[in-house]
Design goal:
The complex is a heterotrimer. Chain A has ten helices and 14 strands. By secondary structure, chain A is α+β, with helices and mostly antiparallel strands. Chain A folds into two domains: about 110 residues, Uridine Diphospho-n-acetylenolpyruvylglucosamine Reductase, domain 3; about 110 residues, CO dehydrogenase flavoprotein, C-terminal domain (Enolase-like, domain 1, 2-Layer Sandwich), CATH 3.30.390. In chain A, strand 2, helix 2 and strand 3 form a beta-alpha-beta unit. The longest helix of chain A has 22 residues. In chain B, helix 11 packs parallel to helix 20 and helix 15 packs parallel to helix 16. The radius of gyration of chain B is 27 Å and the shape is globular. Chain C is α+β, with helices and mostly antiparallel strands. Chain C folds into two domains: about 80 residues, Roll (Ubiquitin-like (UB roll)); about 70 residues, DNA polymerase, domain 1, CATH 1.10.150. In chain C, a hairpin with a 2-residue loop joins strand 1 and strand 2. The longest helix of chain C has 14 residues. The chains are: A alpha+beta, B alpha+beta, C alpha+beta. At the A-B interface, helix 10 of A face helix 4 and helix 21 of B.
Chain lengths: ~290, ~750, ~160
């Protein structure tokens, strides 16, 4: 039977204090509403009240000395067109934003929603993972910071309590020369689908050598994951085709995808290697190093 | 040829464009009647089960619930208008029992004051099911003796036809090839979901049904038959329709009849609208085919024998099965001049949602197999695929073996030449460089598709032309317009025949109370069949006008004609009277007359002329992912005569894009009877940014039986797209994709086994 | 059930309404305001038949709660005509034969309007992307894309 989505109450708090108070009162009977593009599709039957975060001033992209801070209610569209994100290392986030859904969805969907929905195939979290972003979360006891890599737990699970609210995403400025890339495999390349596999990568380089690499993959495990073994293979070397291929193959061994209507486990593993290779090639080029 | 006609051949704007572009157009879902109730269906969670017991007591006591009708009260439709021909056929058209045969098969319907209450009431109903073993695979279903989906067994229909001597044909061949092709269950995916109607069963015995059916008159007869009413007491009103493509080619399973029963019980109008999910899970789709082809040919490229064996998945109930397999037969046998052909088809039940009419009606499936096979033959011979077609196609003057009728018009050769030119075939084909990660290729296919159903089914069309006192014209026709624009085309035909401005003609709404018998909008038939009726009715009206004009102008009738709304003497044009002046005189001014000019025509079209066409595709394949990008499509079609070229171009682009979906992404995934992709995120129809430039080439061969030379176009446009794309993929990467949809994963699997790492 | 009181401007007209917490903007437009041009096509935001403009941005009204757009400016295709004059997009859809069944047309034209209001001279690719959330099963997008480019030319005063 179709579940009923009939929340009885709608709140639109004007302050963070009020928002957190509402969240602690209702607990898991409350749902946070941002852009609505996930919530109104899922229509969770248990939602008794909706807390709309539109009036909390969480729609911003701020540049500062130590990096960039993005409000949780910032739309994906704003991220895709932001001047603050038009240079490295932020290109990966901008590209991920531009690969998410359609322009119409991007007008509505928010970065906070894309994170908190915790879909294993989400686009923006991968970019944020390779950027080493942290999340500022507010609860009854005040604010806390959590690294995005530690945010996702199992499928759809996340490190945020029912009485907590995601406020912002903080991306540290890069030290050193960076190149990044976002790759998304969709059905027959051009569709605007959910990813079969998606990959974000980042390389930090000194002279002609990669000093640090970060690779994150989506839709290949219950949560977005880092390809740690692949990352390790790239350290302190000049990226070339062989090394990149080796890293790509290693990444493909680290993933644990499922068979579903979008693709088989076999295909996803194969594609993980192809996408990681492409992501590393582009990152390397964006670093100014052409891996032959 | 250019200035032969005044309005035929011109891209006049659609008569419904203003309503549609301002948001004024009202579709079934937009309608509300006074006192209307809303209905919802309780659907089976099991693929095969007997409803042992139903407890509706709690739901009945829900204050908003006004009526409940169960599976045992409401018949299911298991036939189509072939059944209407005889009393016996009519009886076989409906079945009633307590068995559900697919996940989503309706168990009962509830009508309540509002949709939410209806939904709530459904959750209060207790059903006791006795689960029965299901069978999902048609080949298994054919063999299985233990599971019976229907009493008479799982094979709904079997056909075996032989033309010539198949063994002789193979003996005469230098080569024989055998291949097996599989096609998917495509969904119509109209943007207005399939399934919306309002039934208003008045206690006086008059039943009005608002429905977006493609077949207003047949639907009237179906409902009258099922409910035991005289046809005259049933009125079908068709509002604007948000696309049909065959998906509304009959009563919708669980919809109209349910609403009628609920309305009768409640004594109030009842509306039901399916959700998108219900559309995907429980309405008809395109029959999946398994096609085995064995083809013999000489080294010169002459086809000598073709053995075609088809297993067609009908789903849980059979509606359009015989027609669909017959269409596969007529095109599979008709397109090429093969002397020895054997065709065998099985229509098999499975415990999955039903399949029915869908743009192309059996032909896209057959075409995918046959045109892939032709490409394989050409490859084997090292012959250009176009040349192979030119050597073998059956052209004008030849006899179609299936219907034993002479082909009067065939522009296939022009389609091939012009299409090839447009895509620059000579330059691009057989590049076979097949190097690099991204590889390009081109492919083509041919097709034929009969217009209408003259040689197989009742196929009437009628029209009434009423000339009003001001010289304007009311055209009454039941030719339902689902969005194709056929009403505009019919206006052009009437205007051309009458010699008046097309803007002076208004077409009736589609309403069976006020429009005469029509066979519905299917089989690409309305421009042809409807057009013939309209032209006849207009000619008759014109003749009556000229009789009066002759008296009035005192000049022989055979010297008179009408142009731009003026009746004039062709020998002495200054002798004239406007149509408006004459009509006013005879209708109003002359008290001894008071006559309206009425032209009427009804009957069947003289033929079922095939439309011919050729598709050309250029693709790019990413050999690392298997991903395909269609770079260019050219569709060249012989339409006899383009009544409205913009409409034809619209049909071509729309059909080609639907064909891209059929080729690459579309197909319901059903696991253990459950649809796994019942939304547009996972059932992918092409989007604006996914598709290339599409070139439409219109060839006019002039069909002598058609109105101003026209024949059909709607279906032809998507029939060969998938085969052209599959052939282009082969040209690009050398793998032969024999199963639709050609997902990128399947391509990668094929590439890996073709070219092991 | 508690009603949420909202004030929205729809096609220039202020509307004060009491809506339900879970009510979508699509339902508000269709059921309360009788504006039937925005259509239900899927309810999941994938087909775009429900597209309207919120503060000038193309928005899926089936995924937007009415309460969420309190205080906002909403445009639907019913508000496009100026007196008896069609908007250039409407005109050009009529003339180019860009309409078939018409069910997707209101949503598609609103997506196109959002684009042209911000970008007077978009490329074909941009047009295709702007209407990529608007599924059409009839036209193959060929004529709608041409119609939008033609409307852009007209709005720029060319021709």
């Amino acid at each position: 039977m179709k579940p009923f989505f009939k929340p009885k109450a709608y709140f639109r708090p004007g302050s963070l204090g009020k928002a957190v108070e509402l969240l602690s009162n209702f607990g898991d009977r409350a749902k946070v509403l941002a852009g609505g593009t996930d919530l109104l599709v899922q229509k969770p039957s248990g939602a008794e009240c909706l807390i709309d975060i539109a009036d909390l001033g969480l729609e911003y992209i701020k540049e500062h000395e130590n990096g960039v801070e993005i409000g949780a209610a910032t739309t994906v569209r704003s991220i895709g067109v932001s001047g603050s994100l038009s240079s490295e290392p932020y290109l990966v986030l901008r590209d991920a934003a531009c690969a998410l859904g359609t322009p119409t969805i991007r007008n509505m969907a928010t970065i906070g929603g894309n994170i908190c929905n915790a879909s294993p195939a989400a686009d923006l979290p991968l970019a944020l993972m390779v950027l080493g972003a942290s999340l500022t979360i507010m609860g009854p006891a005040g604010k806390r910071e959590v690294n995005i890599g530690e945010f996702f737990e199992n499928i759809g699970g996340k490190n945020i309590q029912a009485d907590e609210l995601l406020l912002s995403i903080n991306i540290p400025a890069s030290r050193g020369r960076c190149g990044t890339s976002f790759q998304k495999l969709r059905h027959h390349q051009t569709s605007i689908d959910i990813a079969i596999v998606n990959v974000a990568a980042r390389m930090t380089c000194e002279k002609q050598a990669c000093v640090k690499a970060s690779i994150a993959l989506g839709a290949v495990a219950p949560t977005p994951i880092y390809a740690r073994k692949a990352e390790a293979l790239l350290g302190k070397k000049r990226p070339n085709a062989a090394i990149i291929q080796e890293a790509a193959s290693a990444a493909s061994e680290e993933v644990n995808p499922i068979d579903d209507v979008r693709g088989s486990k076999w295909y996803r593993k194969k594609m993980a290697a192809v996408l990681v290779r492409r992501a590393l090639e582009e990152s390397s080029r964006r670093c100014g190093i052409w891996p032959e | 040829m250019k200035n032969e006609f005044s309005v035929v051949g011109k891209s006049v704007p659609r008569i419904d464009a203003y309503d549609k572009v301002t948001g004024r157009a009202r579709y079934c879902r937009d309608l509300k009647l006074e006192g209307m109730l809303h209905a919802k269906l309780l659907r089976s969670p099991y693929p095969h089960a007997r409803v042992k017991a139903l407890d509706v007591s709690r739901a009945k006591s829900h204050p908003a619930v006004k009526a409940i009708a169960t599976i045992e009260e409401v018949p299911k439709v298991v036939g189509y208008w072939w059944n209407l021909r005889t009393e016996k056929g009519m009886k076989k058209m409906f079945m009633q029992d307590n068995v559900v045969r697919f996940v989503g098969d309706p168990v009962l319907g509830v009508a309540a004051e509002d949709e939410d209450s209806a939904e709530e009431a459904l959750s209060m109903i207790l059903v006791q099911y006795e689960q029965l073993p299901p069978v999902f695979d048609p080949v298994e279903s054919m063999k299985d003796q233990t599971i019976k989906i229907h009493e008479r067994g799982n094979i709904a229909f079997h056909v075996l036809k032989e033309y010539g001597d198949i063994e002789k044909g193979f003996r005469e061949a230098d080569f024989v090839i055998e291949n097996r092709f599989v096609t998917s269950k495509q969904k119509h995916a109209t943007i207005e979901p399939i399934g919306s109607c309002i039934a208003d069963y008045s206690p006086s015995g008059k039943l009005s049904v608002y429905s977006s059916t493609q077949l207003p008159h047949w639907s009237r007869m179906y409902l009258a038959g099922a409910l035991g009413l005289p046809s005259s007491n049933v009125r079908i009103i068709k509002p604007y329709t948000g696309g049909a493509f065959g998906g509304r080619c009959g009563l919708i399973h669980g919809l109209e009849l349910m609403c009628c029963h609920l309305s009768k019980k409640a004594g109030r109008p009842v509306k039901m609208s399916f959700t998108r999910k219900e559309d995907f899970e429980a309405t008809e789709g395109r029959h999946p085919f398994l096609v085995e082809l064995r083809t013999g040919f000489t080294k010169e490229g002459i086809l000598t024998a073709n053995s075609i064996k088809i297993v067609m998945d009908v789903g849980a109930y059979a509606t359009h099965y015989i027609g669909v397999i017959a269409d596969a037969l007529s095109t599979g046998v008709g397109l090429y001049r093969i002397p020895h052909v054997k065709f065998e088809g099985y229509c098999v039940y499975t415990n999955k949602s039903l399949n029915g009419a869908f743009r192309g009606y059996g032909n896209p499936q057959m075409n995918f197999a046959q045109e892939s096979q032709m490409d394989i033959v050409a490859e084997k011979l090292g012959m250009d695929p176009i040349e192979l077609r030119l050597k073998n196609y059956r052209g004008a003057g030849e006899i179609d073996p299936v219907f034993n009728e002479k082909i009067l018009s065939c522009g296939l050769k022009e389609c091939l030449f012009q299409g090839a030119e447009k895509i620059r075939w000579k330059k691009k084909s057989r590049r076979s460089s097949r190097r690099g990660k991204i590889r390009k290729g081109v492919g083509m296919s041919c097709l034929m598709h009969g217009t209408g159903a003259r040689f197989g089914l009742p196929d009437p069309a009628s029209a009434i032309v009423l000339i009003n006192a001001d010289g304007s014209v009311s055209l009454e026709t039941a030719a339902a317009d689902d969005g194709q624009g056929n009403k505009t085309g019919l206006v052009q035909i009437a205007a051309e025949e009458l010699g008046i401005d097309w803007r002076k003609i208004s077409v009736s709404d589609t309403d069976t109370d006020t429009t005469p018998l029509d066979g519905g909008t299917h089989g690409s038939r309305q421009t042809y069949c409807g057009g013939i009726a309209v032209r006849k009715a207009a000619a008759q009206a014109k003749k009556s006008v000229l009789v009066f004009a002759s008296k009035h102008l005192n000049t022989p009738q055979n010297r008179l004609d009408i142009r731009e709304g003026v009746i004039y003497d062709t020998k002495r044009p200054s002798l004239n009277i406007s149509l408006a002046d004459l009509m006013r005189k005879i209708q109003i001014e002359d008290l001894s007359l008071c006559e309206q000019i009425i032209g009427a025509a009804t009957g069947v079209a003289p033929s079922m002329p095939p439309t011919y066409g050729a598709h050309f595709a250029e693709v790019e394949v990413d050999t690392e992912t298997g991903g395909v990008r269609v770079l260019r499509l050219v569709g060249a079609f012989d339409v006899g005569k383009a009544i409205n070229p913009a409409h034809i171009e619209g049909q071509i682009a729309g059909g080609e894009v639907m064909g891209i979906g059929y080729a690459l992404t579309e197909g319901l995934v059903i696991e253990n009877g459950k649809v796994m992709n019942s939304n547009f995120a996972d059932y992918r129809i092409p989007r604006s940014c996914d598709i290339p430039r599409i070139d439409a080439v219109i060839v006019e061969s002039h069909e002598p039986t058609g109105p101003f030379g026209a024949k059909g176009i709607g279906e032809a446009t998507m029939i060969g797209t998938a085969s052209a794309i599959a052939n282009a993929i082969y040209d690009a990467v050398g793998v032969r994709m024999k199963e639709l949809p050609i997902t990128q994963e399947k391509i990668l699997v094929a590439l890996q086994s073709f070219n092991p790492p | 059930m508690a009603r949420v009181n909202i004030k929205i401007k729809v096609n220039g007209k202020l509307q004060e309404l009491g809506v339900e917490a879970h009510e979508t903007l699509l339902d508000t437009l269709r059921e309360r305001l009788g504006l039937l041009a925005a259509k239900y096509g899927c309810g999941d935001g994938e087909c775009g038949a429900c597209t309207v403009l919120v503060e000038g941005n193309a928005t899926l009204s089936c995924l937007t709660l009415a309460a969420h757009v309190d205080g906002k400016d909403i445009e639907t295709i019913e508000g496009l005509e100026q007196g008896s004059h069609l908007h250039p997009l409407q005109e050009s859809f009529v003339e180019q034969g860009a309409i078939q069944c018409g069910y997707c047309t209101p949503g598609m034209i609103m997506s196109a309007k959002a684009l042209l209001d911000k970008d007077a001279d978009p490329s074909e690719e941009k047009v295709r992307r702007a209407i990529s959330n608007n599924l059409c099963r009839c036209t193959g997008y060929e004529k709608p894309v041409k119609a939008i480019l033609e409307a852009a030319r007209r709005m720029r005063g060319e021709k």
